[in-house]
Design brief:
The chain is globular and about 45 Å long. The chain has a domain of about 90 residues: Jelly Rolls (Sandwich). The chain is built from one helix and 13 strands; from the N terminus they run ββαβββββββββββ. It is mainly β. The N and C termini lie far apart (about 35 Å). Strand 12 and strand 13 form a beta hairpin.
Length: about 160
């Protein structure tokens, strides 16, 4: 199981395979091209919520600014400095700081590493059925289409 011994609950997060970038359509990928994510919750079989270890290189962003319709999100900064950008403006987050984003609150948010040093954080969210995502700054949404999540324009056309 990804280098992790399934009988033991403790593991080294760096043993979990990483994924760089995002699944966004090509025109929206640039912001998160240098994002490296390890799905820690999946590695140990968590079913009710996800936990990701995310590394952002200098200049990288976590995602396009977004909000979830049904999924709560929580982040905890482990190292470095990140800028949280939301409808309220910009807030600098340093190691040891946290932020939360309740489901259904239309406050688009994302993290950007504006420093000259790498940063990492834990990203935690529930796995609510029927969750969709809105991206307020671009013409994109994540919607359930024919039973699967698909990126579409705000008017519902496939991307």
């Amino acid at each position: 199981m990804n280098g992790i011994k399934p009988n033991l609950p403790a593991f080294d997060p760096l043993d979990v395979p990483s994924r760089t970038g995002s699944s966004y359509p090509a025109r929206y990928k640039a912001v998160s091209e240098a994002r490296v994510k390890r799905k820690l919750g999946d590695a140990v079989g968590l079913k009710n919520f996800g936990v990701n270890l995310v590394h952002l290189a200098p200049g990288a962003g976590s995602a396009q600014r977004h909000w979830h319709t049904r999924q709560d999100e929580f982040i905890y900064v482990l190292e470095g400095e990140l800028v949280l950008i939301s409808d309220a403006g910009e807030q600098v987050l340093q190691a040891g700081m946290a932020a939360g984003f309740p489901a259904g609150v239309a406050d688009g948010h994302h993290l950007v590493n504006k420093s000259g040093h790498p940063a990492s954080y834990l990203e935690i969210g529930d796995r609510s059925d029927g969750d969709e995502v809105d991206y307020p700054d671009i013409d994109m949404a994540l919607r359930i289409v024919d039973g699967a999540l698909r990126f579409v324009t705000k008017a519902g056309k496939p991307l």
